[in-house]
Each structure stands twice: as structure tokens, then as C-alpha cells.
Design goal:
About 10% of the residues lie in helices and about 50% in strands. It has one helix and eight strands; from the N terminus they run E-E-E-E-E-E-E-E-H. The longest helix has 10 residues.
């Protein structure tokens, strides 16, 4: 998640914001209603951006990193949620030992 996004961001009706998100980060709509346009991607020779609407209590999860556009369809309040840290098995577990053997 970008460090320049404050803990909570307010948007007025019609106001837009561009935010850089890391893959796995999320934007939680705490109140209001927003439209979020995903970062552009290629499908063959065509550039696509997916847009969805999110209401209070819903979250947009970034499947990949990039810039997203957030537009308030009603006054809104958003919160950025960073990607959860990966779970690393304990060094003395059988899974960790197997992973170590497989990984080299």
C-alpha cells in the first residue's frame, strides 16, 4: 500500500482520488458509496480496466499492484488495509523442514 494514503480518507460526492496499491492490499468503504477502477491490464491487444461499485462495509482487494481510481458516488470515507504478512511455519516444524528440502 502506498504510504501517502492517510489512515482514513474522506471523499465528497463526485470527488476522485488515484491511489497506488500493492498486490493484496485493500480499500475498505467505511461509509458511503464509491466506484473503483482497477489498474489497466492487457488482453491480447486491448487495454482493459474493470470498474465496480462498493458500498459501506465492502472492500476492494487489489489482485495485483498498480494505480486505482476511486470516485465517490455519495459522500464516502475509506480506509486502506495493507496486505497481511505471509504465515511462515516455525523452523522446527515438519512442514518447514520439507519446504527447506524442496527449496534447496
Amino acid at each position: 500500500m502506498t504510504s501517502d494514503l492517510p489512515e482514513t480518507t474522506r471523499l465528497e460526492l463526485g470527488q476522485s482520488l488515484h491511489v497506488a496499491l500493492d498486490a493484496g492490499a485493500s480499500l475498505l468503504v467505511m461509509e458511503g458509496h464509491v466506484r473503483i477502477v482497477s489498474p489497466p491490464s492487457w488482453l491480447g491487444e486491448t487495454v482493459l480496466s474493470v470498474q465496480n461499485s462498493f458500498g459501506e462495509g465492502e472492500a476492494y482487494a487489489a489482485g495485483r499492484g498498480g494505480w486505482v481510481e476511486v470516485t465517490a458516488l455519495a459522500p464516502a470515507r475509506l480506509r486502506g488495509v495493507p496486505q497481511a504478512a505471509p504465515v511462515v511455519p516455525a523452523a522446527n516444524s515438519r512442514v518447514a523442514r520439507l519446504w527447506q528440502l524442496l527449496g534447496g
